[in-house]
Design brief:
single chain, 205 residues, Serine Threonine Protein Phosphatase 5, Tetratricopeptide repeat, 2 domains, 79% helix, elongated
Length: 205
């Protein structure tokens, strides 16, 4: 936040760049690679020296690659290579970036919308990403809450039935959907990481 304030208060492009670079370094250190790449795109490139421009373009490519945004990484690689001569580590990164951008989209990724639609009927949202045990637990909890509601309606305890129904609704249509979306993100991340590791091993045995 402090670095963002410094960038906002900066009197010159160079001062703003310094603050944004510091923020990007912090985000990268914290593992927020996508946010780091997005922060680097806000830099005023004209206010950087050629050496700084070279380093920033490399960092954009690297952070985008680490974030799994291979198309953006390939775009930054093209921008770098159009104006600068890559070094050995940069050439190795380019090889991975272009390979992932070219073939990574063929991975059998799960879709967030499909998971959320299936989440309306536990345990299908969980099963979509292979989380069978958690799906059965979700189904059991929802069935238990619905059962309590039905029993209390039978006993004319309408307030208790309403509360039990609210719990079931909250878990099924809110928590359950959020969890299904998270599981898709986790599943796709693991798939990309496995592919990336196998690609590294094949390219650099």
């Amino acid at each position: 936040m402090e670095q963002e304030r410094e960038a906002f208060r900066a009197a010159t492009a160079a001062e703003a760049n310094a603050a944004l670079l510091a923020k990007a370094r912090c985000l990268k250190q914290a593992g927020s690679y996508g946010d780091a790449a997005a922060t680097l795109t806000r830099l005023a490139m004209y206010a950087l020296t050629p050496e700084e421009q070279q380093e920033v373009l490399y960092e954009k490519e690297l952070c985008s690659y680490l974030a799994g945004d291979f198309e953006a990484a390939a775009s930054f690689a093209d921008e770098f290579n159009a104006g600068f001569e890559p070094w050995e580590a940069k050439r190795k990164l380019d090889t991975l970036v272009y390979a992932m951008a070219g073939r990574g989209e063929a991975l059998p990724l799960k879709k967030d919308g499909t998971a959320m639609a299936l989440a309306f009927l536990p345990p299908l949202g969980h099963w979509y990403t292979g989380n069978y045990g958690e799906g059965l637990l979700s189904m059991g909890l929802n069935a238990f809450a619905a059962g309590i509601g039905a029993v209390n309606i039978w006993w004319c305890n309408y307030l208790t039935a309403f509360l039990a129904g609210a719990v079931a609704l909250d878990y099924t249509f809110m928590g359950n959907q959020a969890r299904a979306s998270f599981l898709v993100e986790q599943y796709n991340y693991r798939l990309r990481e496995d592919y990336r590791r196998s690609l590294i091993q094949s390219l650099y045995p």
